[in-house]
Structures are given as structure tokens and as C-alpha cells.
Write a structure and sequence with these properties.
- By secondary structure, this protein is mainly α.
- It has a domain of 62 residues.
- Helices cover 48% and strands 6% of the residues.
- It contains four helices and two strands.
- It has a two-stranded parallel sheet with strand order 1-2.
- β1, α2 and β2 form a beta-alpha-beta unit.
- The longest helix has 17 residues.
Length: 99
């Protein structure tokens, strides 16, 4: 079966950029993290990845509810997020063992 021809590449100018990309480029991007204790590991992983990618820094506005506010507070306090992963795993083990 013959392959379909590819469409020509289209120009993606500033007007065509996703609003999140525009906000990042303008320095107005912020993040909000939802509540729900089971989201804590997910939020923590997202924050670590965003920091590693250079998208999230000390100037990035953060907000959250419940566990999301704890994540936002940890970031704003400058805590070592990778160490927090270890603490989270230890907490989960303690919960499983009935400690």
C-alpha cells in the first residue's frame, strides 16, 4: 500500500503558540496543585520534573489545596525535593507496617 504524502510543514509563529508556552516565555506561568493525599507523590514527581526542566523556579507562582498546598510550601521553603521522595517512601512503609 503506498504511503500518503506528508503535508508541508507549517510555520508556528508566536500567535500560534500554546497559551502555556506564551505564559512561560512572558514569565507569567504559575501552577496550582489539587488536594487529595494520594496525589502527593504525583505532585512531587511533577514538581521535580518541572524544576529539572528549568520551567519552575523560585519566582514561579505556586498555589494548592490540601496536599497541593504542602507541595507548594515545600517548594517555596526550598526543601530538597529528592530527599522528600525518600521520606515519602519511608512514610508509606511505616503506614503499611502499622507503625
Amino acid at each position: 500500500m503506498p504511503s500518503l504524502p506528508r503535508p508541508p510543514p507549517r510555520y508556528v509563529g508566536p500567535a500560534a503558540l500554546h497559551p502555556a508556552v506564551q505564559a512561560f516565555q512572558q514569565g507569567t506561568l504559575g501552577f496550582a496543585f489539587s488536594g487529595g493525599g494520594f496525589f502527593f507523590p504525583y505532585h512531587l514527581g511533577c514538581v521535580i520534573q518541572l524544576k529539572d526542566m528549568g520551567i519552575l523556579d523560585q519566582r514561579t507562582p505556586l498555589a494548592g489545596a490540601s496536599c497541593g498546598s504542602i507541595i507548594a510550601s515545600c517548594v517555596n521553603a526550598g526543601l530538597d525535593l529528592h530527599a522528600l521522595v525518600g521520606e515519602l517512601l519511608q512514610f508509606a512503609n511505616d503506614c503499611r507496617s502499622g507503625f
